[in-house]
Amino acid sequence: MIILKNNKKTIILIVVLLIFIGFIIFWIMSHKEPEVNNNEIDFTEYTPQEEISNTQLRQTLITLYFKNKETGEITPEARMIDSKMLLNNPYNELVILLIEGPKNESLEKLIPQETKLNSVNIQKGIVYIDFSEEFTNVGNMGAEEENKIIYSIVNTLTELTEVSGIKILINGEENKGFSDEGLNFNEIFVRQVPSAT
Fold first, then answer.
1. Is the overall model pTM greater than 0.90, yes or no?
2. How many domains does the chain contain in total?
3. For residue 82, what are the domain limits?
4. What does residue 66 show for φ and ψ, rounded to 5 degrees?
5. What is the dihedral of CA 154, 149, 105, 159, to 10 degrees?
């Protein structure tokens, strides 16, 4: 009878001990880092659907201002260009693009035909643009239309943060004006802030 009781206690003790050991093993196994089998890993490289070319990496967005054929207002044209064009003299490049005209067919260039760009440089935030005499040949356009010519240039160049104003020269001379004497270039032109209505 005593042996039987001791056997029962021993069996219960063994069962409890086995359960405890099983729990410890289960806990260790559940918290163990999974083994990585290098033979089973897929090392397939990700390839984007469209590769980015060197040309695309060099592209930058600029804003040029031209006249809207329908409304007659100065209208921005966003354009992607090679950023290398803007490294040495961005002001020169922007004025050349204005002389060449818009890509958008609903816009038209304002700088008079045959105008040549003599030089462009910046001093203390003011860009000095020296045009050929053709820049002044506008016929009887009137001051309002002449203003649009000036502000297509001003708005384009003042998109650059370091530019605060524009001074127009004709063949190196200051204080010239359009041929109909509607607008004189004696002042420094600054970007106009639209008036609140």
1. no
2. 1
3. 55-170
4. -135, 175
5. 0
